[in-house]
Structure formats: C-alpha cells, structure tokens
Predict the 3D structure of the following.
Amino acid sequence: MLSVRDRRDRPPEEGVVAELQGFAVDKTFFTSHKGILLETELVFGIILVSVFAYDAFKIYRTEMAPGAIQGDQQ
C-alpha cells in the first residue's frame, strides 16, 4: 500500500484522467440540502444576470442611441 509520501513523490500521470482527477462530482452533495440550495442559487443567479443584461441593453437603445431607433422607423 502506498503512503502519502510515495504518492507525492511519483511523477504526475498524463492524460485526461490526470487532468480531471481533482474535479470529481460528489453526487451525494447535490442530493443534500446544501447541494439543492446551491443549484437553486445558480439558476436564479443566471436568470437575474440575463434580466439585468436585457434591461441594460433596452435602456441603452432607448436613451443612449436614439438615432438608431429613429433611423429604423423612417
């Protein structure tokens, strides 16, 4: 059995497995209360950012660039 020191002294493994070794998905976390809360916060965060970006673009088109809208209507 390898000890912590033996694993640390080995050369790094190559390939996709070595790159993704620290990014394992813990399925029990996502089914726990904290995981569900995190997923919900992420979804609402994405929705809020989208709404703010759309609103900012709409304000920009109406107030900051009125020439573009007047040219479209003629």
